[in-house]
């Protein structure tokens, strides 16, 4: 236990040092805030505000806003930005300062301004990291969730096991599952539960999605092996109400609400977000086997799924203070989420249809966020605590077939459930606590240093109300992760070089209580695994010409085991206290070309990636049960290309193509010769592509309010099992996929109300994202949206 105590003391000491350091900066300082705009009242991003007498400076954010701490007295602000005339402004910090300054364009540099003016998203893309930034505001009228948006991007492939709310596997450059970390506004979603995932999060609640592929900057503070997906919500200082409702095939209803009240005078806000999803998921499944009570196959049938209903809901309330002397932002949020998922069959097996088996989730979260920019020091701290309950209900004494017929009612002395050998009503409860402190100190406009300290804590306990022999987690187990990072960044005066180098320390501490297999009562075996690893990396971006960006990045990355990987879930997944962290050497080489040719905006992006990974954590099944093991060494390499052509914002065509070759590199598996050595890893696609087209056909007549969307996805076929051995024609394959989607959007003249319609899987193709697990056929939806600001 001493390592735990020492680490807690260490991180507590760091935290108090931060507070002391910040308080020294606060003392005697006055907060000056403002916004820099152009002559059309558009915020100017990255304008420099220099205090002449003190020789210090700051820059505006993506909203054109800045904040700086100054001593009492009179000072001169000099505001500069490329393409604009310099501007000087006198202030007196003895009175409250919240200023607005308008810059004038230099008339002889208008052409250059059009090229050099960059949004915050564009500036992010021009760093050395391989990042995709998706502006979801353009898609909020459509019937989409986060998963459906991500699937259209290069290097990302998402495979689902059914309809709304079904399990999914997201692959990023060939790596998948927990090798990818997920965030909301930079806060990790680790251990949030099944109610808050990408496949049920409505696009209306998101402003953008950031996708970092491979190398990850330290501000996320996560142990991502393959990359990071960060969902960003609205953060502007304005009041609004935005609500949408959609209805469609399979009795699918989806509601979303995003609202905010902002008091400009007193500088505080209330924010309320909510969503509700429901679907019967009663789409047709073809060629399912029909059994009798003796287990004999009596034939096959095409049937509608009868036990696949899904519903989920979330309610989040947030209160925040902005632009105060003690904080730029101080916010507190409460979130409640729940879901219920009826399972028609095991995730990868249609031979055992269920009629009662279900899972439920309840998630309660409290979070706080603090941001403050001092003279040069910038601090961002967040805290999340909560309780997550996952309930597995396998209490039925009946067996069903695919025709929704009860083929057996078990005797009272037969304790079998639909899935497990003994009927079970198991509740798994996690108490979680996550904290993060990120500090950035720019020495000047060329050099800065940043530090990030992350602590994740989880306590897991369980109880089975039906099966008295299931004593999993009756004695709680705990898992703690500490990730400490430091980074140095350099940017030259001409913005032609962007370089970053960083190091990360990963540590895992656990206290795992296991039932003694030789004692059937209460004996406990206590295990305390302890891992510590050092990772490092660097990124470089060069801008030799205004239209060209070249990138190079590398990271020695680690991923610590997840809670249920090392602890198990108490029912179908047993613990593995010997599980080791995954390791990967991640390389990226990329290029971006952005060019305006007459009325056309052209963007081309290409990225070559290489991932040399060891100690892959994979689920080792034994029927419907099993545990996680370190099974494979894997080499992933590939290339992704994307191009977009935008004509006057009237028509936009984009396409992306991904090819990846992922092979097993371990010659032996647990001392046994690996028959698939140097062969492709099973059950992972090799080639896939997307084509997306949007057109405003009546641009002049309808004042830019009607848009048609068309998207096509193609995925080549790939082997279910290992590539080596046997005749190729005799192997099971996941067939190639070709699907089309059509959307029509119309925004009414007052721009408060919109209506849209969607048709997915337009040609009603038979889609199998997992072996023999059929996805929904053709489906149609209509969506209404109302928004006021």
From TrEMBL:
Compartment annotation: Cell outer membrane
Matches recorded under Pfam families: CarbopepD_reg_2 (PF13715), Plug (PF07715)
Domain TonB-dependent receptor plug stretches: 124-228
Keyword ATP-binding recorded: no
Superkingdom of the source species: Bacteria
Claim: Protein biosynthesis is one of the keywords in the record: no
PROSITE patterns: TONB_DEPENDENT_REC_3
Record key words, sorted: Cell outer membrane, Membrane, Receptor, Signal, Transmembrane, Transmembrane beta strand, Transport
Annotated membrane topology: Multi-pass membrane protein
Main location: membrane
Family designation: Belongs to the TonB-dependent receptor family.
PANTHER family per the UniProt record, alphabetical: HEMOGLOBIN AND HEMOGLOBIN-HAPTOGLOBIN-BINDING PROTEIN 1-RELATED, TONB-DEPENDENT OUTER MEMBRANE RECEPTOR
Protein's name in the database: TonB-dependent receptor plug domain-containing protein
